[in-house]
Amino acid sequence: MSLGIISLRTINDNLLEFKSKKPDKKIKIGFVQINNSFSGQCYLPLSVGMLQAYAQKHLTHSDDYEFFAPIYTFMRIQEAAEFLSDADIVGFSIYMWNFENSLDIARELKRRKPEVVIVFGGPQVPDSKKQFRRVRTVDLSSKESLRKRMNFTEDFHHLNPEIDICVHGEGERVFKYILEQMAIDSCHDKSLIPSASYVDANGIFHFNPKVERMNDKELAQAPSPFTTGVFDKLMTVFPDQKWVLMYETDRGCPFQCTYCDWGGATEDRVSRFLLEQIYGDIMWVGEHRIPYIFLCNANFGILERDIQIAEYFAETRAKYGYLEAVSTQNSKNPKKHTIEALKILAKAGLNRVTVMSQQSLNPATLKAVRRDNMKLDEYYVMQKQLAAEGVYTMTDIILPMPEETYQSIVDGTSTLITNGQHNHIQLNFLTILRNTEMGNPEYQERYGYEIVRTKMISHHGKRNDSISGVEEYQELVVATNTMPKEEWIKAWVFCWMTSLIYFNKLLQIPIMTLHEYYGVSYGQALEAFVKNSSCSGELPILSEIYRFFANLARDIQAGCSGEYFHSEEWLNIYWPPEEYILIKLCAENKLEAFYREAEMVMMQFMTSDKPVDVLLDSLKLNRSLIKLPFKNEDLNLELNYNIWDVYRTVLLGGTADYKPGNYSYCIDRTTERWDSWEEWCQKMVWYCNRRGAYLYGSKNPYIEIAGHH
């Protein structure tokens, strides 16, 4: 069976010119790239903007094509279809957050206008010919030809007959070719469209040869949708819409992680956009007062030129004073220039938190998912350097990866904290993405995956905020052959408890003291709260927390709940479980009882050779530092040990001795104030999450956006 990868570079330019034709009438083009609206802000639709910009530059008769303003956010299905009713062809950019809504719009549009050509592209379009090797071949091996995913694309077409063409991989050149074919015969003949799949009039499925990805030279021919005015019409039609931006300065990923379609969708080569174009785009951001950029590079900082790009962002901030933050997904194996680029962003006030991804610390897991993490000693040195520079870091962990166990999660968490990650570990549910190696049935069978389909819920999003009424879904892994169902529940209880007491700072100082002064491992200290809470009738508050976490995990595992918990009382949004519990403890006046129970749990680690006062001072300091609403005066605190000095030193990657003495502190509780529980929930619990700024003296200067970790 031939995979048939071809290169458009080998096709004679005259042949392409011969295949073009001046349209008999103006061809009208609609686009749909639905993005979630976060906190009243919405992303400009980058993918379809790139398609339009490329087509307008390279179409033979570009003046004979009319592009509608794209549908960029959720709306009622009937309204969307009506908006697109005059279009001759509509291109959909689909991913898991807009898949069901896109299908419903396409179905309704096809019902109203059967002759309209529907084109689907994006990471959610299933690619049955996807090869998961770094050295690709033209022909599939006999073993690969028997893969269960071989019918993915054909089944998708037959299940969704409203889709005329699916585009696989980069879309700019392919969509331009589709538009040329529209002028010839309204795309009745699809046989020459590269990287396209379709079902012909006789019901026969076809998957045309694929086109190679664009290299640097070809990517330089992809114009900017920003500076070429592609989005001008959209921004004019919706003048009150607040915009944020997705942006890319390069494409591709050299890593081969089996769970990720970032690199899987674009293969292994990293191709670069022109620096001159990037500079113009970033200045455009400042001129148009765009406050937030999500940088879509798979590995920001992988290229030395990313230092220069970071300087562009800093220049825009200095010149226009409006760009507030740039969110980056950093290089998996960061180098010296990676750190330099991040420091530039941090110095400019643009880097809210630096993601130091690990996903797992278990060697067997890393081998199973083909992830090549940087060496841990290098990772820890870099993390401490960033901490000393005042650059906040966050570590990503995905649960449950193959070969991961409950104990490996405990050990990995303990190792990360021991080596300096005191700010935030972001725990992510393992979601199956369609075009990943992990999406293969054989892979799932090998590692004993149990998968449930659950509704997608936005982090800090509102309940039932889908205007269309059409739900989106995701596939969560809720058990593996090394982490059975009960172990999965146990692991998530441990993770949520860790987030609550350590990274939400309720007990970070005394737990750090247990480790630094009493020699207790972080894993032992954290597990003690899970074990004691699960079986002790003497700890009613901790037992209540344990039951809440365990019941939520069971509901998720049964497919009855998403990964966040909705609270109608507290802002009527979905909260991460540990944040919801933090709110309940404070708002229901249970904080003092919580600290009494926490003391009981930690006292089990006390021995006769070291004074208990160091732990008690740590508990006292931590309790006094928790940010709460309605505080009208500062707090004077007397301690018998230099707990605060040691704590601050360890956070910055250093070491210090606990010394007895008379230590007086004045805790500033009036500079930051919240005069209602609602304001406190939003500005303290929600906004402070990524920086873990839950203690007085640790400020969070940023407004966060719903749906973002």
UniProtKB/TrEMBL annotation:
GO MF annotation list: catalytic activity; cobalamin binding; iron-sulfur cluster binding; metal ion binding
Every copy of the Radical SAM core domain together lies at: 238-463
Cofactor needs: [4Fe-4S] cluster
Could you name the domain of life of the organism this protein comes from?
Answer: Bacteria
Recorded GO cellular component terms are: cytosol
Q: Which InterPro entries match?
A: BchE-like, Cobalamin-bd, Elp3/MiaA/NifB-like_rSAM, rSAM, rSAM_horseshoe, rSAM_sf
Q: Which UniProt keywords apply?
A: Iron, Iron-sulfur, Metal-binding, S-adenosyl-L-methionine
Q: Which residues form the B12-binding domain?
A: 28-189
UniProt entry tagged with the keyword Metal-binding: yes
Q: Which Pfam families match?
A: B12-binding, Radical_SAM
Name the record gives this protein: Uncharacterized protein
Q: Which species is this UniProt entry from?
A: Candidatus Yanofskybacteria bacterium RIFCSPLOWO2_01_FULL_42_49
